[in-house]
Specification:
The complex is a heterodimer of chains A (216) and B (324). Chain A has 216 residues and is of the alpha/beta class. Helix content of chain A is 38%, strand content 22%. Chain A has two domains: 6-87 and 108-112, Glutaredoxin, CATH 3.40.30.10; 121-215, 3-Layer(aba) Sandwich (Glutaredoxin). In chain A, strands 2-1-3-4-6-5-7-8 form an eight-stranded mixed beta sheet. Chain A is globular. The model of chain A has no long low-confidence stretch (mean pLDDT 94). Chain B contains seven helices and 17 strands. Classes of the chains: A alpha/beta (216), B alpha/beta (324).
Chain lengths: 216, 324
């Protein structure tokens, strides 16, 4: 199954021309009980073919358990983006980034390649002051037009701070996890499994909740 | 599986708003009214810029648009994409994800204040900030937000697969949300306090679904539940009888409130909070124009907002020419 028609391929090639460094898509699959692993992998293969700067690593959640542990990957399919030095920068997608999530996935490729726009200085000061690890889960559905914006913000923050891990979670694929966090409106953002809010809120709101989690 | 690529979010912004200069015209809002004002203003040769929070405005959250002249069917998003790419082709500077907190008049200039603390100067302003979903304002609604209570059917509908949902409202948005949800949920109850005011063609479509029940003249009193919502308490307005309708979700589609709070001390608003404009889109302050859902123009429709946006731009152009 090909997700990208010729027109989309052409548009993406043009977008990828703005990439700076190489990036690697580390895609974790698992053999059993994974309905979307195959589609996710083939989608990533299509993406890889559109730029010389995009590389693909096919990994297995069980067989490559050490790699999974290194990036805090606990479910499949999961896509981890690595930068030019193959470092994990906290940018992760759990579930296929299709539908509207293409609009968080493509910008993430540019950001991890170093072609993103800088955050305002006032935000950087706050992020530099972080002391404890921060995990940001952004629950989405693929039919939600403004969820990708919230995912982009989580990833942007992750790229600015080594302490932040930002992950998209496709709510229907990971139904049990969504149930656990009572997800019934998306985007739902959960910080350190404890502090949560709904909606594509401004960066200030993300930072406020992160600061609450720091004080906890 | 499909992809909904939105080039604007991936491509680097082609033209950046220059915060240091004085614009002829700044347009606040990037829905149909704002985008069409930008198109008309730019074609008149004005130095124009757009400050937007959510590109496309509410249209983006609309599943299907079937009443915009020239297009028998478009998704809300496709329509916005067409609007946006038309405006982008004229290289109008665009500041996205930005919120305007206030506008002040200093001599014959306006200073547009952003939440980031920055200010941008302009000779004239068009306010086209649209509106946001209205809430029921009943007990339990805020408590169960994100725990059953939702305001975007296309976003949250998939989370209610096989579950029971209620849609509150009786206009086109409500009936269309009920149609979308009927395809996903096990049952849909459409609850409205009076009679349906949606277009007949949409109501006919809703009636083709067997898992939909309609409760008219029914007032919603309360959202009930434990950790998640479990149902709503309703009152039959004819009999006065109070009963409980069980449901996992409540989609509120009861209209909109204007996003006019940031200019309430600048221009005159009506009792509904809408900016009062005359037939030429002029507000109570010279040099400040308004268009679309944020104004008191009757009927909130995409085509009407777009038309009002054009009118506001033309009036603003006349105003700016008079200044010279």
């Amino acid at each position: 199954m090909s997700l990208l028609n010729e027109q989309l391929q052409e548009q993406l090639r043009e977008i990828f021309a703005d990439m700076k460094d190489d990036i690697t898509l580390a895609v974790f699959s698992k053999e059993d009980d994974c309905e979307t692993c195959k589609d996710t992998l083939s989608f990533m293969q299509e993406i890889e073919s559109l730029s010389d700067k995009i590389h693909l690593e096919e990994l297995d959640l069980v067989k490559d358990a050490d790699r999974a542990a290194a990036y805090n990957v606990v479910m499949a399919p999961s896509i981890v983006m690595l930068d030019g030095q193959k470092n994990y920068r906290g940018v992760k997608f759990n579930g296929i980034p299709a539908g509207h999530e293409i609009n968080s996935f493509i910008p993430a490729i540019l950001e991890v390649s170093g072609a993103g726009e800088a955050l305002p200085e006032s935000y950087k000061v706050k992020l530099n002051a972080l002391e404890k690890p921060v995990n940001i889960k952004v629950f989405v559905t693929l039919s939600c037009p403004h969820c990708a914006g919230a995912v982009q913000k989580a990833h942007k923050l992750a790229l600015e701070s080594d302490l932040i891990d930002g992950e998209m979670i496709e709510a229907q694929t990971f139904y049990d996890l969504s149930e656990k966090f009572n997800v019934s409106s998306v985007p739902k953002i959960v910080i350190n499994d404890q502090y949560e809010f709904v909606g594509n809120q401004p960066l200030e709101v993300f930072l406020e909740e992160i600061e609450k989690a720091q004080r906890a | 599986m499909e992809l909904n690529l939105n080039l604007a979010s991936s491509k680097k912004k082609s033209v950046v708003l220059d915060k240091g200069k004085t614009y002829d015209l700044l347009i606040i809002g990037s829905g149909p009214a704002g985008l069409n004002s930008a198109l008309y203003a730019k074609r008149k040769g004005l130095e124009v810029g757009i400050i937007g929070k959510k590109s496309g405005g509410q249209v983006v959250d609309t599943t299907s648009v079937e009443n915009y002249l020239g297009f028998e069917y478009k998704t809300g998003e496709e329509l916005v994409k067409a609007f946006k790419s038309h405006v982008d082709s004229l290289k109008v500077p665009f500041l996205s994800d930005a919120e305007v907190t206030s506008i002040h008049k200093i001599e014959n200039r306006f200073m547009v204040q952003l939440s980031s603390g920055e200010e941008i100067a302009t000779k004239a302003v068009i306010i086209a900030t649209g509106s946001r979903p209205r809430q029921l304002g009943i007990s339990g609604e805020a408590d169960y937000l994100g725990k059953g209570v939702a305001y975007c059917a296309i976003c949250d509908g998939p989370l209610f697969e096989g579950l029971e949902v209620i849609v509150a409202g009786g206009g086109n948005s409500a009936v269309e949300a009920a149609i979308d949800l009927a395809k996903i949920a096990s049952t849909v109850k459409l609850v409205h306090r009076s009679q349906l005011r949606a277009d007949q063609i949409v109501i006919d479509k809703l009636n083709t679904f067997e898992n939909v029940e309609i409760y008219l003249e029914t007032e919603i009193l309360e959202v009930k539940g434990a950790q998640l919502m479990s149902g709503i308490i309703v009152k039959d307005k004819k009999t006065g009888e109070i009963s409980e309708l069980a449901a996992n979700g409540l989609f509120v589609e009861i209209g909109y409130l204007p996003n006019s709070g940031f200019v309430k001390d600048l221009v005159k608003l009506n009792e509904r909070g809408e900016i009062i404009v005359n037939a030429a889109c002029e507000t109570s302050v010279e040099g400040v124009f308004a268009a679309g859902d944020v104004t008191d123009v009757p009927y909130k429709q995409i085509v009407i907002s777009a038309g009002e946006g054009a009118k506001a731009a033309l009036t603003a152009n006349d105003y700016i020419n008079r200044l010279k």
